[in-house]
Amino acid sequence: MARDKEIVTKTMKRVKSKDTSIEVVLRKALWEKGFRYHKNYAKLPGKPDIVIPKYKIAIFCDSEFFHGKDWDKLKLQLQRGNNADYWIKKIERNRQRDRENEKKLLFLGWKVVRFWGKDITKNVNECVKVIEEMIFDESMDDFP
Q1: pTM
Q2: What are the DSSP E strand ranges found in the chain?
Q3: Strand 50-52 relative to strand 111-116: parallel, antiparallel, unpaired?
Q4: For residues 23 and 139, what is the distance between their CA atoms, to the nearest angstrom?
Q5: Which of 54, 58, 59, 134 has the smallest C-beta neighbourhood within 10 Å, fewest atoms?
Q6: 30-33: which pairs have CB atoms within 8 A and are 24 or more residues apart?
Q7: Residue-level pLDDT at 19
Q8: Cβ-count burial of 128 within 10 angstroms (0-12 exposed, 13-18 middle, 19+ buried)?
Q9: What is the mean pLDDT of the chain?
Q10: By three-state DSSP, how is residue 27 classified?
């Protein structure tokens, strides 16, 4: 089924790169727990969505589509759709860029955590728990 290009263009223009709903949900939960953070931190590779500088934690809130969750399945779906070459190339490049930025952050001594959007929306408390455990592990490293 062909879609109207004007509708697709209008929809894609509304896709945000910062302050997405999943980011806002996670930030609110972290704030309520007393964590202070920077958002969309341009001083680090990949411009993490949330950064907790005190613990050197970089957090990315990734949408399933644009970051290629279950890539093998998604790729098959895209191959059957419109503009398959464009989307496959775009998402593969996004995934590659994610890996490159993660390596750079690790090299700089940062801990990196990535959450899928649906994991945040379905169970934000579990996501916060993952971050709390990272902080706890870090604080335990300070003890002899």
Answers
A1: 0.84
A2: 38-39, 50-52, 57-62, 111-116
A3: unpaired
A4: 26
A5: 54
A6: 30/128, 30/131, 33/128, 33/132
A7: 76
A8: middle
A9: 89
A10: helix
